[in-house]
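ok so I'm stuck.
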Amino acid sequence: MKTIHKHRLNVSTDVQEIRLPESGTVLKVDYILQDAAICMWVEVDADTVIDTPKEVRTFKVFTTGSGIPDNASYLGTTIDHMKAQAYHVYELKN
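replied:
not stuck anymore, here's the structure
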């Protein structure tokens, strides 16, 4: 059985760490206007939610025109329509 959980990313160019199972799959990223934040919905095995060690995975938000490192894997793009700003979410791999 699988489940989906929501995780929040700050609208920032800082590297952000989230504890997730390695097998977790990001399904969608979206900008939530009310929170002024980016949210990711991640599908995980239901068995990994409780009492399972999770690894620290690193994510970074890039704006249009920013340089993106070779170790970054694209997850999705979302837009803040109030500022006409696009945010591109990547996971950084070691």
